[in-house]
Amino acid sequence: MASTWKGTKPKAGGVRFRAESHEGTANHVHFEEKLHDSIVMVTQEEDGSFLVKVGFLKISHKYEITFLLPATQTLGQGACSVPLPSLYLKVVEIVPVPEGHRMKCEYIAHKEGVIREEMVITSEIKDNASVKVTLQARVLDRLHGTPMLLEGVKCIGSELEYDSEQSDWQGFD
Fold this sequence. Notes:
The protein is elongated. The protein contains no helices and 11 strands. 17% of the residues are buried. 0% of the residues lie in helices and 45% in strands. It has a 5-stranded mixed sheet, with no helix packed on it. A 4-stranded antiparallel sheet has the order 7-8-5-11, with no helix packed on it. The protein has strands at 15-17, 29-31, 41-44, 50-58, 61-70, 79-81, 89-97, 100-108, 113-123, 130-140, 153-158. The chain has one domain (36-163): Immunoglobulins (Immunoglobulin-like, Sandwich), CATH 2.60.40.10.
């Protein structure tokens, strides 16, 4: 579909309207593919590591982040995480699936701005086989409202819901 306005480009994966109209049925809007702006994006870097973009988070909130790590020859089927040096990021689960590994992590947004937390996933079968995974997000301060979370990101708590004796700010158990 060519655009008649100068300086504009057609967008891939746009909205498709049905031309035919059947009496008694409403016309529907159909999305040709899932919008990339609404899901956690996992991309492989040139060095073989993975970058996981989880979108906007809010400071002092705890999140469950689930994503698919694509299959790699490096890891094979069995994978586990190396203990993380971060008190704010915890790998909860790694499940092998036909497409790779479904990973579930918990993250506490403890500082504002763009954050990058690294984890290393190793093979349970192959010696010295590992891949680096970097989690990236933009953490908003308390004054910037509540961000719309991407599919795969779920808020599971905030500092307002914990009392001082039950606080997660002491790290994960």
